[in-house]
């Protein structure tokens, strides 16, 4: 049985591309079997990198285009650049069933719009949601929406609960999804009308895919008592940026504390192993790869400023969503 998958890759999006993209492919290919990569971008820049990182042409199919979506483009101007940009061509290959999933570290707004122009929504889902992985004390959380939809309805949040749970099952098959709504309090009467109505609906309608656990407050996101956290895009994006900022602050301050004095340097040597594990736990590269859920094909957004390790992880997330039958899981549970 042939279980080879093919990932379409926009090689020109994000900082330090295509270098980080090709190096990321090289890193991912060393830890994965039966994966091929269809790479779209400027071959004058890409071919020397294929050689530099010892990538086999048996695994990589290169498609040349010297046109790309710029980071400062608006979503509309990116779409108007035409159908021969690396981003558009990669998504079009997904539309034509030439590839199984698509990854880009480029312009987020452009990726959303061009994805919706090329791909269909899953039946009965009104809006896509941007979802990502966050670490917790007990493993990993799926969090959504992280900014695709500022305004949401009760139905949208219910759909997000289903899609987030399907994603968790695709990535971690042994886990039971436990859903909670991000809110300003844990009491049933807290929050605005929309979130209270969503609570009531999920509490009254049992789903075989997940267990509904009620509300969760921002200070308990990392506790690990739930693993699928649902919010509208406005709230979710603020939570994401706050968590990222806090993580960067802690790492920066720890570096200062352990390098600013002799005692600090000695302490860092003594606690080297613990510090290394702590830094790894907070390293955003290891959780890179946000999934645009709701489309009928997997589309993965890699962080624009990540490096090759982060890009390789987005490819790993991409591979898991395909092998875990993410889209089929969502279709089966949407009603």
Q: Topology, pairings included?
A:
Layout: E1 5-10, H1 19-31, E2 35-41, H2 43-52, E3 60-64, H3 75-80, H4 86-95, E4 101-104, H5 108-118, E5 129-136, E6 139-144, H6 154-171, E7 178-182, H7 193-204, E8 211-216, E9 228-230, H8 233-259, H9 262-270, H10 272-282, E10 290-293, E11 299-301, H11 308-323, H12 326-333
Helix pairs in contact: 1-11, 4-5, 6-7, 6-12
Record keyword descriptors for this entry.
eleven-stranded mixed sheet, 335 residues, globular, 12 helices, Isopropylmalate Dehydrogenase, alpha/beta
Would you give an account of this structure?
The protein is α/β, with parallel strands linked by helices and about 325 residues long. The chain has two domains: about 1-125 and about 295-335, Isopropylmalate Dehydrogenase (3-Layer(aba) Sandwich), CATH 3.40.718; about 130-285, 3-Layer(aba) Sandwich (Isopropylmalate Dehydrogenase), CATH 3.40.718.10. It is built from twelve helices and eleven strands. The chain has helices at about 20-30, 45-50, 75-80, 85-95, 110-120, 155-170, 195-205, 235-260, 260-270, 270-280, 310-325, 325-335; strands spanning about 5-10, 35-40, 60-65, 100-105, 130-135, 140-145, 180, 210-215, 230, 290-295, 300. The protein has an eleven-stranded mixed beta sheet, sandwiched between helices. α4 (about 85-95) runs parallel beside α5. It starts with a strand and ends with a helix.
